[in-house]
Amino acid sequence: MTTARLGSVRDVDWRVALRRYGWNTGVWLLLIALLVFYASTIPSFGSFQIASIAKNSLPLVFLAIAQAVIVIAGGIDLAVGSMLILSNAVAAQLMDEQAFGITLMVAVLVILMAAALNGAVGWVISVSKVPDIVVTLATLFIIAGLALLVLPSPGGGTSDGFRALFTGSATGTGTNFWPALVMLFVPMLGAAWWMKHSRTGLSLYATGSDPTAAYLSGVNTARAKIVSYAVGGAFAAMGGLASLAITGSGESRFATASNFTLKSVAAIVLGGVALTGGIGSVVGAAAAGIVLFVLSPVLSAMGVDPNTAQVIQGALIVLVMMIAGIVQLRRERAA
Fold this sequence. Notes:
By secondary structure, this protein is mainly α. 79% of the residues lie in helices and 0% in strands.
């Protein structure tokens, strides 16, 4: 191969890599920049602050991954926040005053329950052909109501070992940030690998990109829809379990569910997941979830009023959506 041709191939590889990983890299760089800036604005920044950010961002990170999987497959789930509080409520009731081994078993059962319940929602959407946004808007209220039936007021609990599994401490506070980082990166990287390298994961991308073409190519689009919702339900349940581990008790307020749902949509947009489906990665969505969480303490450290901080976060999301729209338009023109 000639030097000129080799240079041309490398140039193409570089452009492909930029298109494929550029947005994810940008979001992670934004997160690092925010952390560096935050560290420079407070008197001391150490393991306690790292542990606090890592563990307290877990619920939103898991919910962002849940929403990303579903949106990549061409859907959207307005009930992921409700699934989080339902899982939180059920786990808090069943784990209260139980040994560590029992709480682990309950956690697995809660994740399976959420996956089955959300998979059923995907099945209803596939069979009825009713738009995802309509069905999940209805299930938002249904699942939130179930959460209130299970846990009418804050309460319940879990074992010290289960709290330490997510937070690194039996009390939910401390300086050990490694368990939270492990709980963050292992599920995120596992989901990313599954979506990029398994036949089922790739079918989600195909279905989200063009369901008709995917169907004609032999992809079971109905199955892909159900799987995406089931996986999303499982990650929403993990968000509920993380929330239980952090606080030590359960709570099922509807405001919590709606707030988490809105933030999950914001996270996937910031993370580069196209709302039209078929484009994006859970890695970018996870980073965006942490960014949205870190923004609040950063703005507080800067002395910004909480109401103004909400405006800034909203403006950031609008700006990112505009950039994403321009990128998508260029992709369509190039195609």
